[in-house]
Write a structure and sequence with these properties.
about 675 residues, alpha/beta, Rossmann fold, Four Helix Bundle (Hemerythrin (Met), subunit A), 4 domains, eight-stranded mixed sheet, seven-stranded parallel sheet, 26 helices, disordered N terminus
């Protein structure tokens, strides 16, 4: 068990791992009218007339659920136990866990679902607390290394003819000027740079190309400097991807990314299983081979070591990789890749597989034979070896707790092995190693109980609480379940669903999210609806997610057709979003290899996978989708589900009982009256 006492900060985490830290400003005097006790109770802070109410005059009102949450989190930190709390939108859960974390005197990691949530914490909530509550608080934000500029790469590129065209040359000059001014080196500051910038991929500070302490630019390095300051941070804000990348490294004894810490808070904890599954699994893709060859060529040219023999080896990796991945079926989708299927694949494509492995081995041998072996070249050779090991594992291993699969997506082919069950891994590596882990989200319970999420994550012992909602759902939201809908598998379903969507959009005057469980369904309904309504329609996939969201917010009467990525983490308060339409209950696709393997594992254990896994997963997903609508106490709107199974099937009752206590109707006229009542 790790000690929870701060017995000295650990040494720096491995510099080659994905980490970035930016230290928050501190030292601002408290603006509260009355001094805060040295060790305040949570009621002193959150209670009626408490600290928050005094320092946010007119901008804060006491919330019973927020106080209850803060007291439970504070108790977890003080008495060293785990806690799991469902806290709906409007609870104020961010301050509900940040204040107890600060008061604990312990180094606490806050893990969020996304980088945007990290930024929100760091730029909004933390400065407020530093100004009014904890002037000496030190906070660090940590992101993956690929978010940050590598000074050494930039210096090399400035002297080399490696830029392609005037646009790239101009972008590089802007990056050089920015590098002289930035304190963080975070590419998020480069608003002119496209998300898929190929130039940035040649300048970022990824582990694969980092020399660590042997780098001439080690001291001015953004990653190094900020990581050193992280050792003194009280709070460390990460995202789930970085957290589980670190936990996976600790499992394999490869060091760590994060400095030592004694407690963790997971915000948006419902995403933990999926992210942990990624990082405790194995994966390669054609892109990794392309990146290896590209980085090898660039490194060799920068070091003037690009002999014809070596450059032929990197070209051979490209050619052999292309030939190998072309042997996979051309259809997009994710498919199982069992031991028998892998053996059959190798029997048919043995030459392409062996040629690819030989190309990697040949490159490594050529590097080993060099008289000069700079650290950059050794790192490239190690990358080649690691990829070759992954390739061998994915084709020749047969670990029982892994499901093997491959996916073709656009120009990419991905091969992966994913843990079927991460509960034992998390039980041993997380919940038994740290004595205080707090999980919170708006969607953790099914029928008011936490059993599902606890069993999936291996959380055996924890205090739990589903906090009372802050919103008046019966007054603010109307759940519309249209009568006469055919079964979703009926050929006539799409036409009827389109009719319902048109009627609802006309009633709501646009201002809606139409959320679908598949791209094919989304596209079909979009085509059926787009010529029948006068509202601006936006379609996921036509622009980046952030651009679509901004257009929706700023376009009167807009309607967004979208899939999974818009079901959560999207906040559109006010009348601009007045209707959320969901096409069907969001059951995971049963043919998906990971889903199928988890179902099979439960069956083999004598359990009921539909009741214990598939229904609860769908319940949490539906709660997330519906959660887009009511974001403030003044929001009102309609939730529509176009799936008759929620009324016809016995399990439909589980969905209904897991949702907030919405008013329910099957009458479109009542929907119209409800929406008319919200108009000024």
């Amino acid at each position: 068990m790790r000690s929870t006492e701060e017995t000295g900060r650990s040494s720096l985490a491995r510099d080659e791992e994905e980490v970035f830290v930016a230290e928050a400003a501190s030292g601002v005097a408290s603006a509260a009218s009355d001094p805060i006790p040295e060790k305040p109770s949570m009621r002193d802070v959150f209670g009626p007339g408490g600290f928050l109410e005094r320092c946010m005059i007119g901008g804060y009102e006491h919330r019973r659920a927020q106080l209850e949450m803060a007291e439970m989190v504070h108790d977890a930190f003080e008495t060293h136990h785990h806690a799991i709390l469902e806290a709906g939108t409007g609870t104020g859960k961010t301050l509900g866990y940040l204040v107890p974390a600060i008061c604990s005197g312990r180094r606490v990691v806050i893990s969020t679902a996304t980088k945007s949530l990290q930024e929100q914490l760091f730029q909004k909530d933390i400065p407020f607390l530093q100004k009014h509550f904890a002037p000496n608080l030190k906070v660090a934000v940590m992101k993956g290394r690929s978010n940050f500029l590598c000074v050494e790469k930039m210096n090399h590129m400035a002297d080399q003819a490696l830029l392609k065209g005037m646009d790239e040359l101009d972008a590089f000059q802007q990056i050089k000027q920015w590098a002289k001014l930035t304190e963080t080196g975070d590419r998020a500051e480069l608003t002119f740079l496209p998300d898929d910038s190929e130039l940035w991929s040649r300048l970022d500070a990824r582990r694969d190309t980092c020399m660590g302490q042997k780098c001439p630019s080690f001291n001015p390095c953004f990653v190094t400097g900020m990581h050193q300051r992280a050792k003194d941070a009280d709070l460390i804000i990460v995202n789930h991807h970085l957290f589980f990348a670190d936990l996976a490294l600790k499992q394999d004894d490869f060091g760590s990314i994060l400095p030592e810490y004694s407690a963790v808070v997971f915000d948006e904890a419902h995403e933990m299983e999926d992210v942990a599954s990624d990082y405790f699994g194995r994966q390669i893709s054609n892109f990794r081979f392309d990146e290896l060859a590209r980085d090898a060529d660039q490194t060799l040219r920068l070091l003037h070591l690009g002999t014809p023999g070596l450059l032929r080896k990197t070209q051979r990796i490209r050619e052999r990789s292309r030939a190998f991945f072309d042997t996979f079926p051309p259809r997009d989708g994710r498919y199982p890749f069992s031991r028998a299927e892998r053996e059959a694949f190798l029997e048919q494509n043995r030459e392409a597989y062996d040629d690819l492995a030989s190309a990697l081995k040949g490159f490594e041998t050529e590097c080993a034979a060099m008289t000069q072996k700079p650290e950059e070249v050794l790192r490239i050779a190690r990358r080649s070896f690691e990829i070759r090991q992954e390739l061998s594992f994915l084709f020749e291993s047969n670990e029982k707790n892994f499901v093997y699969w491959y996916e073709r997506r656009n120009k990419g082919v991905f091969l992966a092995a994913t843990p079927i069950d991460v509960s034992q891994i998390l039980r041993e590596r997380l919940f038994e190693q740290f004595d205080t882990v707090v999980l919170t989200s708006a969607t953790l319970t099914v029928e008011g109980r936490f059993e599902f999420i606890r069993s999936r994550l291996g959380l055996d012992h924890a205090k739990e609480r589903a906090l009372p909602p802050e919103f008046d759902y019966p007054e603010q939201a109307l759940l519309y379940l249209p009568a006469g809908m055919p079964d979703v598998r009926n050929p006539g379903y799409a036409a009827k669903a389109a009719d319902e969507i048109v009627n609802l959009l006309e009633t709501s005057q646009g201002r809606a999210f139409c959320l679908f469980t598949s791209y094919s369904q989304m596209n079909e309904l979009f085509e059926r609806v787009r010529t029948r309504v006068p509202f601006p329609l936006l379609l996921q996939g036509t622009s980046p997610r952030s651009v679509l969201l901004e257009r929706f917010k700023n376009t009167p009467g807009a309607v967004l057709f979208a899939t999974a990525s818009f079901w959560q983490g999207v906040d559109v308060p006010g009348e601009q979003l007045s209707c959320v339409i969901v096409d069907r209950l969001p059951f995971a696709v049963p043919s998906d290899p990971i889903v199928a393997a988890r179902v099979r594992a439960l069956q083999e254990d004598g359990r009921n996978p539909f009741a214990e896994f598939q229904v609860p997963e769908a319940v949490l997903a539906l709660k997330q989708g519906f959660g887009r609508l009511i974001r403030t106490k003044t929001d009102r709107g309609v939730l529509a589900l176009l799936d008759s199974r929620i009324q016809r099937m016995a399990y439909g009752k589980i969905f209904i009982e897991s949702l907030p206590r919405y008013r329910v109707t099957q009458n479109l006229a009542e929907v119209s009256r409800f929406l008319a009542g919200k108009k000024k």
